[in-house]
Amino acid sequence: MADVKLSIAGRDYLVACRDGEEAQLLKLAEQVDASAREAGGIAAGMSENRQLLFAALLMADKMGEMGATKPASEMQAPSANLNNIAETLEKIAERLETLANGA
Q1: Residue 20: inside a domain, yes or no?
Q2: Which of 20, 25, 38, 92 has the fewest CB within 10 Å, making it most exposed?
Q3: What total of structural domains would you count in the chain?
């Protein structure tokens, strides 16, 4: 296992991943960071939890748009990787909503 330091919305996180997955994790963190910063610009002053929730929603929306622009033949057999990302984003959004509600 490897530990990777991620910086998202101005905050650092130490995340464990399998050896060899560090570069992919850093790439994903850059995307989440960009969405978090976009979300922060939309509604300045929101809590960190809400900002990350909106970041996850923005990312999910972008993924939905990507799927809508694909030919029907590609949409019939979606990539397992995109499915995994969508499921992960849904879980993140649910967890952030729980945190935002004080649970």
Answers
A1: no
A2: 20
A3: 1
Q: SS3 string of the chain?
A: CEEEEEEECCEEEEEEECCCCHHHHHHHHHHHHHHHHHHHHHCCCCCHHHHHHHHHHHHHHHHHHHHHCCCHHHHCCCCHHHHHHHHHHHHHHHHHHHHHCCC
Q: Is residue 4 part of a domain?
A: no
- Which domain covers residue 47, as residue numbers? 28-100
Which pLDDT belongs to residue 79?
Answer: 52
